[in-house]
Amino acid sequence: MNAAAKRLRTIFVLVPCAFMIAMLALPAVNGLILSFDHHGPSLANYRFLFDDSMFRRALANNLLIPFASVIVEFILGLSLALTLTAGRKRSALIDTAAILPFAIPEIVILTLARYICMPRGYLNGAIMMTGMPALPWLSPRSPLAMLTVILVDAWHVTPVVMLMLMAGLQTIPAELYEAARLDGAGTLATFRFVTLPMLTPAIIGALILRGVDALRIFSTVLVLTGPEGVPVLSTYSYSLWDDAQKPHEAMAASMILALMVTAIGVGGFMLTRRHSRGDRALA
Questions:
Q1: Is the pLDDT of residue 236 over 90?
Q2: Residue 116 pLDDT more than 50?
């Protein structure tokens, strides 16, 4: 490689790195400093958070909602992926219908969901036609509000999980299924001993991607229930910054959320590397 090519390669590496530092690292460092700055460096902002019952609710919700949402997305996504790849002939209409929830802009989905689930919305209208009372689908502190947020979030993003798992399914050699059939393996045995082990890398990737993204849930909660209906860390931080005019405390809450996202990302990366080393050892 000549000197000009080496300089060009260096430029192609340094420019994206400089952009990432300018757009991510510097704001993150500034935010970390702001979260400790309370008339001088201290932990007062973090003590304020853990003394606030709304923060404790937001922290608990920020663990429960992503966990439940990712579980629902994985079950639905795997079921759809297996169904759509099982048949020899696939309908473009069915494929489009499966992907449509993610293709529709998020604000459109959330607005429709709010109209459907509001106290005098379409869902309660249908329920009251049967003689039953209206249900508090979006009422603050209602378990149904939590369930609504989880299901709406999962329905919107399930196609992403489905597509990742479909890509994994298409990499499984057909010879393995043929060998399992010749050995007399049934559908469940084939899924357990062929499909599931071969699909594990795609499953890990899908769960990590959605786990990191689900922790950052914001617009779903804000549109459906408001910042205090089903609070999460992002809406709690937004409310502190914009409504309460407490930027230091808001940044402290954001740093806790960033730490959670980083922990999931690093843990997922280590799990992926460990699985890859195990596959190489078996090979």
A1: yes
A2: yes
